[in-house]
Amino acid sequence: MREIRVVFGILLIGLLHASVSGTPNLHYWERPKGAIRGPCPVLNVLANHGYLPRSGANITVSQLRKGIDDVVHFNPLLREAFLGLVYTLYGRFGPSGLVLPSLRDLKRHNWLEHDFSLSRQDTYLGDPVNADPELLQQLEDASSDGETYTIEDFARLSNKRIKHSLENNPNVSYTPRTKLITQFEISLLLAAFGKGKKIDKQAVKDIFVHERLPKNFVRKDFLSSLKILATYTELAVRSKLLNPEI
């Protein structure tokens, strides 16, 4: 009987070990030496977790589509519209077909990359690819309750960035399109990683500072276009109410 218990114990330990370390976690965080990253924190996160090639280079349409589906999971029409934009603007044909040469290519000014980013400097003022420490501190300080960010927190911060660019960047591109892109990015962030109309401060720090998925992240079942549109509309309205002049 004792021998049976010993054997059972060994088997149980083996099973537990296999469940923890026997099956490799394909989506652990790693940014290999020499890996290329770009101005979009969320795409950098996908690459750091292996949802996109960790190299950040030669990303095929199917790889980007699957990476988005596996994490963000928004409406297929929105996803395909995004893919169409990316590969029309930045795509190149290579041995594996149509590819995004690198995440860094997204830095081309005034295409999808834009002025008054929440975490990157305007192209005219500095580095549009890597997160700026001062802007990350502004983001850190933007939470009104110290624990979460609300739509109004983001509206206030986005307006602050716009005003800074208008005052300091003689080449600023401030158009309805660039403002829409900024507000749409925030709306997607809230929809994909938030809870209702808020997002945890730590989750934002994980994404923007560490470029990793938030702890205990769970993919949403589905991000409907209507939900994203409702968030975008509220953000746009609050931004206008806070600063009608912009």
UniProtKB/TrEMBL annotation:
Gene3D superfamilies: Chloroperoxidase-like (1.10.489.10). GO terms for molecular function: metal ion binding; peroxidase activity. Belongs to the chloroperoxidase family. Its cofactor is heme b. InterPro entries: Chloroperoxidase, Chloroperoxidase-like_sf. Residues 25-230 form the Heme haloperoxidase family profile domain. PROSITE patterns: HEME_HALOPEROXIDASE (PS51405). The keyword Metal-binding applies. Residues 1-22 form the signal peptide. It comes from the Eukaryota. Pfam families: Peroxidase_2. Keywords: Heme, Iron, Metal-binding, Oxidoreductase, Peroxidase, Signal. This is Cloroperoxidase. The lineage of its organism: Eukaryota, Fungi, Fungi incertae sedis, Zoopagomycota, Entomophthoromycotina.
